[in-house]
Specification:
Length: 315
């Protein structure tokens, strides 16, 4: 029986990806730069089966995105019918990017189980075809994703051990987000007057962010990352109809992180397509930031993570 299990960590972008230049090939319109959440993981097991079954977090599902991806893979490789079981140890569909770690883990598991012989570059390509941000979860550490003509270049800017940062995630809702990222990106491209400005600002931010990460310059990274986050949410808010992902607790957390930063603590915030706030801080500030965010009205719980490594095969 051909089978394999692999895991991958989710990642969060400091310069955000929101908009595609090619929907078919799933090419982002701008480069992005992310950090890997080493204490969170998605594990994916694949084996050949008499019928195709997909189990996500314990439930049998019909996942259109996954089915389309498997169709693409089968155009190039001879794959049997599969039993796929994938589970994450963090809340799914809430802006914590389970599709990133999910497609990364699945790509590595399938490549291994069926001896596809995918290079690291090929793994990034296949993961990206499932979900743009998934390409960033293949490498681990600090990862850049840059669109090229009909593909993307994915590279590790720093490895996981190079810079001791911590991520404190304030969980501010237990509900799934209302608009998924793929649909939201299309809506912003088609129905926001700010889209072109967003693309221009993001290209500039990416170049500056690359330098800040290479230099491990926390204050510059903080400024660029918070600006990219606010600009992405400004784009979302300016989309017609509006995409509003924040709730009252998100705003309370922004205020708290800004206050801590003003008090000299090395911390900044970023927020994805969901209401949770992610505070990125120097590792020695983790317990203070975590305690402070735990006490904010509307915060259900707090998850902490250090920077993690690449997607890996388990068995
Ligand atoms: C990011 N997000 O850079 C941004 C910030 C969400 C907000 O990448 O359509 O699920 O599958 O390529 O990868 C989420 O986008 O979208 C995402 P698709 P994906 O992390």
């Amino acid at each position: 029986m051909q089978a394999a299990t692999a895991y991958a960590h989710p990642n969060i972008a400091l310069v955000k990806y929101w908009g595609k230049s090619d929907d078919e090939l799933n090419i982002p319109a701008t480069p992005s730069l992310a950090i890997t959440l080493g204490d969170l993981r998605t594990t994916s097991h694949v084996e050949e089966s008499a019928s195709e079954v997909v189990v996500l977090d314990g439930e049998v599902v019909n996942d259109a995105k996954l089915e389309r991806w498997l169709e693409l893979v089968r155009k190039q490789y001879d794959l049997p019918l599969l039993h796929i079981e994938s589970s994450s140890d963090f809340p799914a569909s809430s802006g914590l990017a389970s599709s990133a770690s999910g497609f990364a883990a699945l790509t590595v598991a399938i490549s291994n189980a069926f001896d596809l012989g995918l290079s690291l570059e090929d793994q990034c390509d296949w993961a990206r075809l499932g979900s743009g941000s998934a390409a960033r979860s293949i490498h681990g550490g600090f990862v850049a994703l840059e669109p090229e003509e009909d593909t993307c270049r994915v590279s590790q800017v720093l490895d996981a051990s190079a810079w001791d940062l911590s991520i404190v995630i304030a969980i501010t809702s237990d509900r799934a987000k209302t608009t998924g990222s793929t649909a939201g990106m299309t809506a912003s491209r088609d129905a926001s007057p700010f889209y072109d400005g967003w693309l221009r600002a993001t290209m500039e931010a990416f170049d500056q962010c690359l330098v800040a990460v290479r230099d491990k310059d926390f204050d510059t990274l903080a400024r660029i990352a918070e600006a990219s986050c606010r600009q992405m949410h400004a784009l979302m808010l300016s989309t017609e109809p509006a995409l509003i992902y924040w709730n009252a607790a998100t705003l309370n957390c922004i205020e708290a992180v800004t206050g801590m930063h003003e008090d000299g603590i090395k911390v900044f915030y970023t927020i994805d397509a969901g209401s949770h706030l992610k505070a990125v801080c120097e590792a020695d500030a983790e317990s203070h930031v975590s305690e402070r965010l735990s006490g904010i009205e509307g915060v259900h719980s707090v998850i902490t993570s250090r920077i993690g490594g690449p997607a890996r095969i388990l068995v």
